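W.,

You were right to be curious about this one. When I first looked at the sequence I had no strong expectations either way, so I just let the prediction run and decided to look at it fresh. Below is the sequence, 273 residues in total, followed by the output.
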Amino acid sequence: MTTGPAHYQVLALRYAERDALRSANFIGGDAHDAPMPMAYYLWVVRGQGRTVVVDTGFGEDMALKRHRRLLRHPVDALAAAGVDAAAVQDVVITHLHNDHVGCFEAFPQARFHLQDDEMRFATGRCMGCETFRRPFEPDHVAGLVRLVYADRVCFHDGDAPLAPGIGLHRLGGHTMGLQVVSVATARGTVVLASDASHFYEHVERDSCFPLVYHVGEVLQGYRRMRELAASPAHIVPGHDPLVIERYPAEEGLEGWAARLDLPPLPPQQSKES
């Protein structure tokens, strides 16, 4: 019997936010400074008998320490979407910044997928520089090191398949070992950019977020994501509030959970219009 290609459902779950100005979101600032708030997401890929969580978000401790507004705890967001964090088997960590790995302890059964370069970055000489180490939390990094010794971290070196239709791809740029996730969906391959592109404007204008390890890798990463995705419109940035406005809502979770495997809403149905 012939089976069809693997297609997955993909959810973006918005769990926190913070205020910012355009000048804070682009290298060199912005000549037309205006509010440009940042959203915080984690993502769910499910289908073919598996559920994969991409990044784990942060909880109340990081929200308080780093002055973010926690809208819902990531574990509660997952539960509302029908995902039990305690039962998840695979978690992809795109990079080790606090907002992407802060709730790792809520996944006691999971294997964590991480690029070699990211662990090297987070535990190496670059952390002697305050600019680079500021977004990391030593307890998070140490916790992942402990999971290495518990044989619960699966390291990758560049491109790697996670499952049929799900790929991991090291781009670097924002951090040394940042990875993105490509997912086969019924509408074509979607790329979860995470912080390879914080906002749509970054990848669309070949501009760059100021917190960066290697600008050249950021710009080459945009090219790589365009190659991986079914179209530029299939690239989903990691912190843009417009994601929730551009995609259909998950039923019952309107306003904070979007279905990325479905086509974007027509312009007349988007708040952007």
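Here's what jumped out at me. The chain has a mean pLDDT of 95. And, maybe more interesting for your project: The longest helix spans residues 215-228.

Coffee later to discuss?

I.
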